[in-house]
Structures are given as structure tokens and as C-alpha cells.
Amino acid sequence: GQQLNQSPQSMFIQEGEDVSMNCTSSSIFNTWLWYKQDPGEGPVLLIALYKAGELTSNGRLTAQFGITRKDSFLNISASIPSDVGIYFCAGPNNYGQNFVFGPGTRLSVLP
Amino acid sequence: ETGVTQTPRHLVMGMTNKKSLKCEQHLGHNAMYWYKQSAKKPLELMFVYNFKEQTENNSVPSRFSPECPNSSHLFLHLHTLQPEDSALYLCASSQELAGRRLSSGNTIYFGEGSWLTVV
Asked: Which of B70, B71, B86, B90 has a beta carbon 3.0–4.6 Å from B35's, enabling a disulfide?
């Protein structure tokens, strides 16, 4: 079945730094979704991408749908402590009924 | 506020108890899901419902029993659970099942989760 890989698995950055993480797959996705999960909470949708090459921003967050449709990246500019959490990429399984999720990138922001 | 509400947020139950988790979505979606998330593990799909009909059971033990009376409500009935079932249980919904391509895009929205501890 379709799988998503995320890198890095975890990262420690200083407050104020920019962050970049990506999501890749061996198969094509028609939609890329980025979520953030705070400890003990459900994932919250950050950005949804529906078209290859699309670049979308949400405040300090920017995400792009790769031209090959096999990857996507998420950038966070000028990180702040509340950016701490796990960031998941996801996409609809083209051959089934569920959504596929990456394993997540765990972000820690040091003051 | 994601439009998906889960209750209770926290539940502690003994191994012989029977309890239920409730999920309600106010988004007009047709598909609903239960996921399990254990500590430091990926999201694990449990059940999928579409128009209140179960379309996927991801080999979930029978001590977990889902119920979907209508497209807006989803329950997870729990009985004779084991301590290893302790986890965050997440409900989610989407306009259509993942395989359907929509002109407006198909996105999945999660509730805040129900923390379950089995003692």
C-alpha cells in the first residue's frame, strides 16, 4: 500500500530559527495535508494542498505540493515556543478508503 | 474547534468495565473514522464508516465494538479491555472516503481525542 516517509524524525532548534521538514512517497498523491499535534490533543489541520506545484501559506507556515506529486515540504519561519509538537503529513489513499499518515516530525524549540 | 467533538476527554476503566466513547461531527461529512494512537507510535486506523455503514475494520479485536447510528455520530463501545489498550483514541471525519476525488479537495478532520487508561 501507499506509504509516507517524513524527515527529519525529530529536530531541536533555537527560538527564532526557520524550520524545514519534508514528506516523500514512492507513489503519487493527489492531495497533501499537513497537521500539527500537541501533546494529548488530536492533530489539527495546518495546510491542505490540492494541486501539483501549489505553494500555500498560513501565517508563518508555508507548504508546497511537489511537482512530481510524490513529495511535499513544510516550512516554519521564525519559530516560537508554541511551535513545539509533532507535525504529520497525510494524503488520501488512492486505492482505498482511508487516509495515509507519515510517522511525524517531532519539533522542539529551545528558548 | 475542528467541528469534531469527542467525549469523554479522559476515561479510566477497569478491565471488567463496559464504557463507550462518543464522537459527533458538525461538518456534514459522510465518512467517519476511529484511530488509535499509542505512545510514540504512528496513528493506527481502526474503523471506517461511510454513510453509517462500516467499510473497513482493520483487524481490530472484538473487545472494541463501533456503532454508527447516523452520519454525524460514531461510538466506540469498550468491554473487557486490557492494559495495553490504554492510548489516545481519535475520531475523525471527511467529506467522502479517501479514494473519492472531489473538486474542492478531500480533507480529514480530527477530534481532540479521548485518553483511555485501562487499569
From this structure: B90
Residue of B nearest to A36 (CA): B110
Contact B105 A103 (CB under 8 A): no
Confirm or reject contact between A50 and chain B (CB < 8 A): yes
Cβ–Cβ gap B105/A31 under 8 Å: yes
Helix (H) or strand (E) holding A20: strand A19-24
Q: What is the pLDDT of residue A15?
A: 97
- Cβ distance A97 to B97 less than 8 Å, yes or no, reads yes
Helix (H) or strand (E) holding A97: none
Mean pLDDT score, B71-90: 96
pLDDT band at residue B26 using 50, 70 and 90 as cut-offs:
very high
Peptide bond before A8: cis, by omega within 30 degrees of 0? yes
Query: So what's the pLDDT on residue B103?
Result: 61
Contact residues on chain B for A45, CB-CB shorter than 8 A: 2, 107, 109
| Record: contact A31-B107, CB cut-off 8 A | yes
Are residues B96 and B31 in contact, defined by beta-carbon separation less than 8 angstroms?
yes
pLDDT for B104 equals: 66
Question: CA of B42, closest CA in chain A: separation in Å?
Answer: 5
Going by C-alpha positions, the residue among B55, B68, B118, B53 that lies closest to residue B89 is B118
Q: What is chain A's mean pLDDT, rounded?
A: 94
* Residue in A44, A94, A99 with CA at minimum distance from that of residue B109: A44
From the number of C-beta atoms within 10 Å of its C-beta (0-12, 13-18, 19+), residue B37 rates as middle
